What does this fold into?
Amino acid sequence: MSNPYFDEIETAMASSPSLDGRPAELVHLTNTNGMTVSFMDIGATWLSCSLPVSGRREVLLRAASMQEHLRQEAYLGAVVGRYANRIAGSRFEINGVEYQVDANEKANSLHGGSAGFDKKRWTIESKSAQSVTFSLYSWDGEQGYPGNLNVTVTYTLTDTNAVKIDYQADVDKDCPVNLTNHAYFNLAGESAVEDCRQHFLQMHGLYYLPTSQDMLPVGGFQAVDNSGFDFISEKQIARDFLQDEDQKTASGYDHAFVLDALITDGDQVAAKVVSPQRDVVMTMSTTMPAVQLYTGNFLQGIKGKSRIYPNQAGLALETQYLPDGPNHPSWGDKCGILRAGQQYQHQTTYKFEY
Ligand code: GLA
It folds into this structure.
């Protein structure tokens, strides 16, 4: 059954070889309301999310082609691991042993290193009409991380217009594990003139982590009160954009927010994004303790589906453990250490109302 919308994505992403010389394999899901989502095995990437709004509205950013996907460094839609966000000095210590992981951002390690999970071909374990499961094996020592790690990520499109992402993992040596999805949303549409700054955001983030020039956390938890980081009540992102010093250091919002522990049960709404025209609402629920709000401050120049993206073309809400968690044992269960034999189990859901 041919669907022109899916055909276009197939042509863009699967008509030329991917990183291992073979074309990517894509999976497309549709729900009973006509919402569609598409994924590919490279990076277990979420490529497309279309809503039946004004005909059809694509609300995810993606690269124009496989070639462009491999060229961009924004992690568009990919699953990120083993450790999402940054690890200072690309080193950490567990059980008295020091580990050195791949440094891909100056001396630091970003999103799992230069050959992180976004660069891997995942196995499509199973798929059904409204769900797909990807798996990945990461060997002991890969990118410097200890332990044989098995990961599965399941995406489910529900008839309530939610995209549910289930993450599971286990490892045979204690290891930092922090898995997220790096989708960028523009609820006005992937090609819209409005960017993420015209969106409205509400978030149960009570604290954020100020960062250094290298985007590493410095100084610990900072209450959001009386700062541009306060999204407790809904506000337009543009309102305080680049107003405070911590944003100036980061060229915008690119910070971890600690979520109120009372709402991280996977069901309650942790964050809500509203389109500029208020015609689409996306809520986010998660079991993760934090979320990185990233306003796409370095997207400029990426050849996207409809055009060359400017900065702020979309925003990411990357649910995660805290950045550089392995080097901050005092952050307790927000550090992202998976113990050998323990089951890593997390869920993040993005639900759309239109
Ligand atoms: C994360 C980081 C950003 C940037 C993007 C990828 O969101 O926090 O600083 O590196 O990934 O471009």
